[in-house]
Design a protein that fits this description.
CATH topology of the largest domain: FAD/NAD(P)-binding domain
CATH superfamily of the largest domain: FAD/NAD(P)-binding domain
Largest sheet: 5 strands, parallel
Strand content: 15-25%
Helix content: 25-40%
CATH class of the largest domain: Alpha Beta
CATH architecture of the largest domain: 3-Layer(bba) Sandwich
Number of domains: 3
Strand order of the largest sheet: 3-2-1-7-20
Distance between the termini: 47 Å
Bound molecules: flavin-adenine dinucleotide
Radius of gyration: 22 Å
Oligomer: single chain
Low-confidence stretches: 4-18, 416-421
Structural class: alpha/beta
Mean pLDDT: 88
Amino acid sequence: MQQPLIQDNRTGQPQQGVGLDPIVIAGGGFGGLYTALALAEQPGHPPLVLVEPNDHFLFLPLLYELLSGELRRWQIAPGYQSLLAGKGIGWLRDKVDRIDTNSRQVHTGQGHTLTYSRLVLATGAGSDDFGVPGVREHALGFRTLADVDRLQAVVRILREGSLTGQRLAIVGGGPSGVELACKLADMLGDRAGIELIEQGPSLLNGSRAFNREQGLLALQRRGVRIRCGTRVLAVHGGYLELVPGGEGPEGPTPETLAVAAVIWAAGLRCQPPALLPAPACDNRGRLLCGPDLRLQDHADIFVVGDLGAIQGAPGTDPEDPVPATPTTAQVAFQEAPVIAANIGHSLVGEPLENFAWKDLGEMLSLGLGEASLTGAGFTLAGPGAYQLRRLAYLARLPGLPLQIRVVAGWLAGNDGPKIQS
Ligand SMILES: Cc1cc2nc3c(=O)[nH]c(=O)nc-3n(C[C@H](O)[C@H](O)[C@H](O)COP(=O)(O)OP(=O)(O)OC[C@H]3O[C@@H](n4cnc5c(N)ncnc54)[C@H](O)[C@@H]3O)c2cc1C
């Protein structure tokens, strides 16, 4: 199948070529969507085509609030149809399968072929099971609306069940694991215990000291059992095999832990569409790109968000050439306008800008109606931080109409803390 008919969301007509092949954006998450929106602002841009299999954008940092019922689905998962209406961005609901960089062609799962003038790779990351047996079959994830549905069903069963001494295990003691543990503990009350399992020596290793402290206090207040230095060997239906921390004289002894469910929140791995020829990537599958966010050795391909590992940024340690730009929405959000500008520069032969990440701070959701935040010399925890976190994310929701509708919902008091049952 050849170039599909792509509707222009501004005119409702098929997109007209303006001399150049389209700019194709693969993936409509934080990086892809905001890059497409920034490109649409540039006068005289080539046609824009977003290829994304889901029918909705997902504002992942607020997924915990969807789980708990503090926010609603339409607030954090607006449909692409309405988000892109009138923006002049064509949307192909499909998955990019394969990219031939020599012929500049994108091949999709439904058999379409798109020839691009510039390509933006924005397919993000998924969770990494580190090869632990049983994770795919038996553990729940926490990245999609379907994951939220499944977890809410588990919570309902635990809340309605007559069994006592039930346990939920969360594997991974980074922000996601800690935020989930706090929300679930508040949702479940005394209906189930929560075990937070982390292989490293401590929780929230990459977080700021204030947030780490607040996270630990929040877990302690909720009676979450913390197991650091504990390695999960396998996940089975109904139990986990693990090696606890603190070795005895005969070395660590594997244990089993009976659980109602396991939520896997440990690690990220990128699985981008197949690129031919295969580009260089780091040990997490992230594609190596230059400080101007172009894929290494490719002048017409840009990488945004979790999928990219920036190399050779000014000040980079030559011993450690891939600097640790965090895999966060904040980074993707900042990269998007730089990529849009650089695509514009590259189309007219101007020099490209280098990306410089500005650390705007860090926010954690810590249970119903509570949060912790730190940044720019400012720290706050508790209900005030919860409200500020919501406001900060409101400013980043895509498009003014959605922002207005969400604020109206808050002002009408429709979205106070509540427990989904
Ligand atoms: C539960 C959770 C909470 C988080 N909280 C925070 C937070 O508080 N603050 C923060 O800064 N960051 C947070 N993050 C991280 C943040 O969401 C990511 O860093 C950010 O979404 C990365 O943007 P991205 O565009 O690279 O990827 P994504 O947003 O994951 O988007 C990737 C998109 O690509 C699409 N896609 C995948 N494969 C293909 C394909 N082959 N073809 C076409 N499309 C494809 C996917 O459907 C998806 O829409 C959180 C993440 C999670 C999971």
